[in-house]
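Ex. 9. Protein: SalK.
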Amino acid sequence: MIRNLFRSLEAVHGMIYFAPEAESRYASVGLDRPGGYFASRAAALGPVGAEVVIATFYNFNPEIVRARIPQAWEKVTPERLLELRWEAADEALAKALPDDLKEITELAKRAAERSKEMLSGRTLFAAYARLPWPDEPRLQLFHAQTLLREFRGDGHLAALLRHNITGIEALVLHVATGDYPADVLRKTRAWSEEQWAATVDDLQKRGLVGEDQLLTDKGRELRDGIEDDTDRMAAPAYDVLSDQEKQRFVELAAPLSKAVVDAGMIPGRR
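Predicted structure tokens for SalK:
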């Protein structure tokens, strides 16, 4: 149920990483696509160095981060980037979401406010938790899901660390489920073919990935354990909702995410 709650609304947040409305705004202040992604998502942390972004984003090649952070802060302040992100999210979501968002926003905000009571160990989430709620209804829903996403995301990193899985190993294991193409994750995270192949080879030697580059039983058990740990750490955010309200959350949220996907706002999702 926890995974369904998260996934049902995730596209409302996830679209910001692909929206041309965001890319054009970041370009206007001198940031390329990777630079806009790293700087805009990290902006809530303040003008941090590359090491903080490497740590909190986890699965990107450190070199692509170092090529853009902290140089981005010489072009634009974190405060201005957050403003541009809000503007882009509002403009993009206006294309897909209905005007009446009151019920789902109230449920999502309650869960997000509950998550704010559990800051410990969740660095990127805590940075977003300090931001004030926007006034625009669409942005309130966007911000609520941003909080829930980063709350879950920081827990996911803890689960990966607990199981001694590195960033690139997590990507290879994701691809090994058969649900996602290797080239997309490898290229967007800036890992070379050689680095990727070496990681696949290592995971095969450890019995986690087979010769077909899909998960073995041992690999599936490991990945399922990581996902289950992630769910357990995300669950407290939603404990403020009754079982009936959780069901209602999914009923209301899923069509909104579908509308975002159907509008072509997340590549590869239809």
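Check your answer against this statement. The two ends are 23 Å apart (CA to CA).
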